[in-house]
Amino acid sequence: MWAARNVFVGTNATLVAPVQVGDGALISIITEPAPADALAIGRGREVVKEGWAAAFAAFQKARKAAQKKG
Q1: 46 or 12, which is more confident
Q2: Nearest residue to 7 via CA among 31, 30, 32, 39
Q3: Cα distances (Å, whole numbers) of residue 32 to 4, 13, 15, 26
Q4: Three-class SS string for 17-51?
Q5: pLDDT of residue 61
Q6: What's the pTM?
Q7: Amino acid 65: pLDDT
Q8: Rounded distance, CA 6 to CA 11, Å?
Q9: What distance in Å separates the CA atoms of residue 29 and residue 57, rounded to the nearest whole number?
Q10: For the stretch 31-66, what's the b/e string if a residue is b when 16 or more beta carbons lie within 10 angstroms of its beta carbon?
Q11: Peptide bond before 18: cis, by omega within 30 degrees of 0?
């Protein structure tokens, strides 16, 4: 990873190597090269895990029941 001059890296920004940042770039979260004088904004890809919330609720309920028997 390398960074150039006059680069602004925002609060809680994440630079995932290997990335290249050009002079004067403004950075949020990136995983691709940012050319000079660019505004680079990235966001993680959304992942949908169907049924996860119901399974987690059942797990929590079973855990609480086991603790009561304890």
Answers
A1: 12
A2: 39
A3: 15, 14, 9, 13
A4: CCCEECCCCEEEEECCCECCCCEECCCCCCCCCCC
A5: 94
A6: 0.42
A7: 94
A8: 16
A9: 32
A10: eeebeeebebebeeeeeeeeeeeeeeeeeeeeeeee
A11: yes
β-pair partners for 21: 3, 34
Q: What is the pLDDT of residues 19-47, one digit of tens each?
A: 788 888 777 667 788 888 888 777 677 57
Chain center to CA of 63: 30
Amino acid at 29: I
- Identify the band that residue 1 occupies on the pLDDT scale cut at 50, 70 and 90: low
- Cβ–Cβ under 8 Å, residues 37 and 22: yes
Q: Residue 56: left if φ>0, alpha if ψ -120 to 50, beta else—which one?
A: alpha
**C-alpha distance from residue 55 to each of 7, 24, 37, 62 (Å):** 44, 47, 47, 11
